[in-house]
Amino acid sequence: EYKGLSYKIDFINKEIEIIKNDKGLLKEPLINLNRKLNKYIRFKNAIDMCLKNLNRTERKVIELRYLSKEELTWKQIANMAGYSEDYCRKEIKTRAINKIIDDLNNCCIELDKYI
Question: How far is residue 66's CA from residue 1's CA, in Å, rounded to a whole number?
Answer without folding.
Answer: 9
